[in-house]
Structures are given as C-alpha cells and as structure tokens.
Amino acid sequence: MSAVLALSEDKILPVSAVLNAIRDLGDEAVEQCDPQIITQASSLSQLPVESFSIDTVLSISSSHELPGDQLLEEISRVLKPGGTILIYKKLTSDKGDVHKAISALEGKLLLAGFLDAQRIQLKSVVPAEVASFGVKGKKPTWKIGSSFAIKKAPKSLAKLQVDDDSDLIDEDTLLTEEDLKKPQLPLVGDCEVGSTRKACKNCICGRAEAEEKVEKLGLTMDQLNNPQSACGSCGLGDAFRCGTCPYKGLPPFKLGEKVSLSSNFLVADI
C-alpha cells in the first residue's frame, strides 16, 4: 500500500477531499491508501514524518504562500526517490489569474529540485464558482550524496572503406607538355654568374669596358661605386682636389653615389 501524506492550512481537511484529489493522479495503487493528514501545515517548521517514507504528498490550499520554500524542503525530505508531489489550489478570485498562478507554481517546484512540473486535468467535482487547478512534480530518483560511474563510449578506430572498382586517375596524365620540359640553366660564362661578378672573356654587356677604364684610372670598382672623401672636396671637381687625390681627372660626383663615366671618357680629344 502506498504511503500518502496530505497537507492543508485549514483546521479540518475531510478524507473525502483527499481521496478525490488522489483520483486525479490516475494511479490505482495510490487510490487504495489510508492517507495521513496534517492540518495547519504552514505553521510547522518540520514535518513529523521520517525521511524517504512517503510515496505521494498532497497539498490542498487557497493561499499562495502554501507550500513555502521551507515546507517544500520538508516535502522533498520525506518523499521517497521518484515520489510525487501534488498541489491543489482553490482560487476565489478572477479565473484569469489561474494561468499566472500555474506558471509561478511550476517554477517554484523546479527551483525546489522537483522534475516534470506540469498542470494536471481535474477529474473531481469542483464547484463552478471556484477556480481550481492542480500541479504535480516528481522527486529525482537519486538521493542526496549519491554517486555513479559515467560510462565512457569505447574508442573505435575510424574505418576507411576503399572501393576497388572505383576509377583511379593516372598521375602522369595530370602533367602537361610544358611541365615535362627541362628547365634552361644560365650559361656558365655569363657575367652575372658567380660571386666575383667579373667580365667574361666574350663580354657583350659592357662590364669589360668599365673594368678597363677603372684599371687605367688606377681605381677599384668599390671606389667608383661608393666614392668617399677624407677632405670632403673630392666630389667637387679637379679645381678643389689635391695633387694626390685618387679621383683626379674624373668628373664631379656626389659622395656615396656611383661615379658615372661617359663612353668617350678616355678617348683622346685630337
């Protein structure tokens, strides 16, 4: 036989009212019970019932304050894991407030730790002038402090399915005639090849002529490409150069910039 506890804020709660409310649950096992009734439950700080001993707790009231947060904690304490809480409200005010009261009560049950809080259809006979509704919830099936192992999904290697009948592409067909051509390497005798950058024997780029001019002047390529002056007057021209100036005979230039020689620089005037 199921253990049922009925709570009310009134001084008297008829057993018939409790049985009518229990019938709305539609549980035949709960209907065949001898309910324990506690009146004026709102004044109690603790229910005189052992923990985890009640299958169903029924609360019947017309006040918004019942059940309060403290009483909901006590109901959760005395309910067995998976037990049911059923709250009946009788409102004599406007029936339009019923939806707000239901939403508020469902939220209250969820915050108290109950699951599946929802409205139930009333099957018992209720006076037409009274706006009544019922909300039920479930206590979780686990106890406080209980633990259980989490089963991890077994790791399985991904299987690669290869279709032997599929058409494979020949990699050689992806190459074009241009890709198959052998790259042309620069000639070894080119003036631009090598770290010394000297003119080759058959030079046609003008480097051999430039080197010849430098040799005749007695200067190095570095002196022509990056001319420097200790006195600061070498770049102004022969009129400002001393007798031992290495740049004597060269046209004026700017220090740090390459000295440009004309094509007929060393050609005789006569």
UniProtKB/TrEMBL annotation:
Protein name: Anamorsin-like
